[in-house]
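Hi there,

I know you've been waiting on this one. I reran it after we fixed the sequence typo, so this is the corrected version. Both the input and the resulting structure follow.
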Amino acid sequence: MNEDREEIMLDLLCKQAVYGLNEEETQQLEQLEYTSTENESIELTIAALGLIDLNTKDEMPPHLQSKILANAENFFAAQNVAAPSFERVTETSAREIVLTETSERKPWFAWLGWAAAATACVVLAINLYSTRTDRQVVQVPTPTPTQEEKLDPVRQRQRLIESGPVLTAQLGKGTVGFDVSGDVVWSDEKQAGFVRVKGLPKNDVSKETYQLWIVDENQDPKTPIDGGTFDISSDGEVIIQIDAKLKAKNPKAFAVTIEKPGGVVVSKQEKVAALAPVKPNQV
């Protein structure tokens, strides 16, 4: 049997074990005169490959393990036939050796050689693995991250007011004579607040900045809590979020001063642009 026919036979045996053959393929395989040993080898190989990744949580009973090992030893001892032996018949004058093969028939792995047989097993393993129905991968859609709602200062201020009790103080003129108006809202619970102001002139950021201050019941009026700096770049009403550097409790007043760029730690309060004293019962 030539190599092409041997490869066809091997392919048909593999297909027969995995998928089954149609009538035409069955007739073709019978014409190739394969043996039961060759067919059994294919089936055992496929059975072994089918045990790949088998998940066994329970330990095999000792008696069953011993029986399987004993049967395996007997099977492979019977299959481990020595390579075909040859006897020297004659030796010619040209010292050509004539040999006679004593074995009856080569098994399929001897026809193709170990390299071809290994290749066939690898291809078969890949095919079996890719067609197994009990190892389906389910693609779970990745949930879309919920985007945090971004609110402008106007809506942030309104949400703070709606969230619970807040302190409210009316903003008026300071010591520099700016005609300002507006208010301050503050929540002790959330330690958050906003200044809404109209009438502050634009500032030259290279020379000065505005700075917020909070005077609470435990703070010396000369050293109020820093509430952050801000700049005015447009006319009209602006809303500034208070950024308290310390925890404030029961504020008594809020102020806006004019300071050097970057702000100061302690204000001299020489230029108070706006002032919002807290009146009793303004919560």
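Quick highlight: The longest helix spans residues 108-131.

Best,
R. S.
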